[in-house]
Amino acid sequence: MSTTNHAQRTAAAAARERIAGYQHRFDARFEAYFDSLAGHLDTPPLSRFTPRCLHLLRDLSLRGGKRLRVALLYEAARLVTDEEPPGLEEAALSIELLQTHGLVHDDIIDDSPVRRGGPSTYYAYRREFPGEPRTALGLAVLAGDLAAFLSMQVLLESGAHAALKQAMLEVQLRAGAETVAGQITDLERDFEPLPSEDLLHTVCEYKSTRYSILAPLRLGLLAAGEELAAHDERLRRYATLAGISGQMRDDYLDLFGDEHTTGKSPGSDIRSGRRSYAVRAVLAAASSPERAVLESALGDPGCTDATIDRIRRIARDHGVDDELRTAVRRYAEDAAAEASSWRPHWQTEAVSFFEGLPLWNAQRTK
């Protein structure tokens, strides 16, 4: 193994270990937050549906997730200080509540029955109201909305000073609005027979990168007292590169991942009609008859496993799997190189985390 590869593996392993630590710590705090809501949130006293809504949000929020956004937030603060500044814990709650909002609404848009190994919020309501589809849909939409508003409220109630709370709210509100715009563009993308790679990059940036990577970086630095203006360009470069690498990895695993490792059957993007990085690469490389096989499967929820296997064979015959792995790695290494340029500005240990994170993400198998 080369010295470079060894260093990259070491950095990736260190990032993975730190992420696990943040996940364990935050999950306990997130559970305590939901425990406190019953006596803290002013809800209609005679309502039976509101407590059920909060229960479903709690269940989805605590059911899983790697808490990468939380790790990014805390490590961004550690770029500046070894102390935990006021407002950081509430920012972590806000980030994950906004993520819960996104998951609930994504599952409505995608008509997804399962999320994180359990029923999606939408399908939980569909089972509870089998003869009332409009009620089930309305309650699911409102549950997602409630999570979004809670994500802002928790920032307002933090112990940070007023100017910091205002700055954090601006970051989160902007991230939320941009994510909705990204979701709209995501739907638009799937009407393109062969979307350009630039369009896929745009969808990735707005739908996920800005709230999953850039917003946590900004929030963590704000909490630590850093001025964002001097650093925002380097934060954007890192977020863009790391975001593309991560999304490509997700798309790769959706088509080529091992079901026993990922915990789900491959081909969900194909069945939902999503022209992902992987689907686009197959469409671009395939012959006309091969492309017809994929086009007929796109958007077909009943697409068989045999058809997905055939599409995977077509993709491998054209080297799409190798092409995607190479691209994932390239973007991850570029992100790590961007992070390494931060060393003159910020603390070395935290910079090392940001170097290792995209490399770890590029190696993951689920």
- The rough form would be described as globular
Total number of beta strands? 2
Helix fraction by DSSP (H/I, runs of at least 4): over 70%
- Structure annotation, total helices: 16
- CATH fold title of the largest domain: Farnesyl Diphosphate Synthase
Poorly predicted sequence stretches spanning 5 or more consecutive residues: none
Strand order of the largest sheet: 1-2
CATH architecture group name of the largest domain: Orthogonal Bundle
CATH top level of the largest domain is Mainly Alpha
Any idea what the radius of gyration is?
21 Å
What does this structure look like?
With 366 residues, the chain is an all-alpha fold. It folds into two domains: 7-227, Farnesyl Diphosphate Synthase (Orthogonal Bundle); 229-366, Farnesyl Diphosphate Synthase. Helices cover 75% and strands 1% of the residues. A hairpin with a 2-residue loop joins strand 1 (114-115) and strand 2. It starts with a helix and ends with a helix. Its cofactor is Mg(2+). This is Polyprenyl synthetase family protein. It is an enzyme of class 2 (transferase).
